[in-house]
Amino acid sequence: MTPTLVILGLFMLIPIIMALWVSVSDWTGRGSPFAGGVHFVGADNYANILTGGGLPQRDFATSLRNNAYYVLLVVPIQTVVSLLLAVMVNQKILRARSAFRTAFYFPSVTSSVAITVVFLFLFTASGAVNRFLSALSISGPNWFADPRGVIHIILGAFGVDGPPAALQNAPFLGLSWWQWLAGPSVAMCVFIIMAIFTTSGTFMLLFIAALQNIEGEVEEAAMMDGASAWQRLRLVTVPMLRPTIFTVVTLGLVGTWQVFDQIFTATQGGPGKTTLTPAFLSYQASFLNQRWGNGAAIAFILFVIIVVMTLFQRIVLRERDTVPRRKRFVLSGAVTTPTAAVAAASSTRPPPSASPEPPEEQP
Fold first, then answer.
1. What whole-number distance in Å separates Cα of residue 242 and Cα of residue 245?
2. What are the tens digits of pLDDT across the range 23-63?
3. What span, in angstroms and rounded, lies between the C-alpha atoms of 193 and 167?
4. Measured distance CA(104)–CA(208) in Å, rounded
5. CA–CA dist 146, 187 (Å, integer)
6. H helix intervals, 212-324
7. For 85-91, what is the mean pLDDT?
8. Which of 54, 17, 29 lies closest to 291 in space, CA to CA?
9. pLDDT at position 341 over 60
10. Confidence bin at 187 (pLDDT 50/70/90)
11. What H or E segment, with its residue span, contains residue 203?
């Protein structure tokens, strides 16, 4: 017990306390943060980021917007892709299943820097992706140098090239609604594709382990009820994978809100700060600009965002013991879902000990 407390205190509690002190001090990175020349400034660093009105607030808002689009696209897509990959390579009729699992998992064990460099070559203006698009008579963008938002590009195709009057206000963190609704930039789309490509293999392994814990009788019962493959996946498999889905989504949220190494390697937050993220902004404020208080404050705000979003998705994915109101008055004359059929079969099936009594012997 004591060694555990010592390890937790040394590697977790003390660093958190030191970072918390730095976030409320004017430490510039020189000497000890607990030296006499370092002063307590209260919530000034937090106020400078959230309500200061200057460049720090605008940069933080931009990074928050960029990362929010990154999370909204990466987490659901990588969860669905990893689940489908797991279902596919878990099929007993599939040959060379181990080879497929290794191939899909291989990007997860490769260095993120190496994969980023590969994507830099693929998505350059004269790279393989644009050559493929040109073969289809499509002019590809200059991916890592294009700061335009995807939603702005779509609106531009319909003739909307500027912000309407209703979207010119800036009610939140100094960015206008038009800027908040820009969508991920073309450059950020490459990072989104990269994240899905590299993380789906890892989460595929979690789903494979969960699928192999599902009893085969459940699948067979659904097949005997006449459920199709899609119905078995949607109504039987996915509900039984709820704990694994919660784990995958939680890990996805934590990882996507902390994206740093790909940004650092490829764009350094450019072009036009459209790939700037809070994690990279915290590094930039601390190590490059020597504003360690602002950098630590950004890290703690990021921590609060991750905790709040984790609690929210925990509420959404929690187990519900009661039957939803809209499903209470389903006619019992016909079996409507495989899960209902399985539950009905298990509830009406006599227990092994309740075998019928043997007929009486005739004289």
1. 5
2. 999 998 888 888 888 999 999 999 999 988 888 899 999 99
3. 29
4. 12
5. 6
6. 216-224, 229-232, 238-240, 242-257, 261-266, 278-283, 292-316
7. 90
8. 29
9. no
10. very high
11. helix 186-211
Question: What sign does the dihedral 207-210-216-220 (CA atoms) show?
Answer: negative
Q: Which amino acid is at 27?
A: W
Give Cα separations from 93 to 96, 97, 232, 315 (angstroms): 10, 9, 17, 37
Going by C-alpha positions, the residue among 356, 161, 188, 200 that lies closest to residue 275 is 188
The tokens 């601390």 sit on which residue? 286
Q: Which of 209, 231, 196, 7 is closest to 107 using CA atoms?
A: 196
Handedness of CA 270, 273, 279, 284 (dihedral sign): positive
Residue 214 structure tokens: 């599902």
| Coil vs helix vs strand at 164 | coil
55: tokens are 């460049």
Q: What is the reported pTM?
A: 0.84
Rounded average pLDDT over 271-280: 94
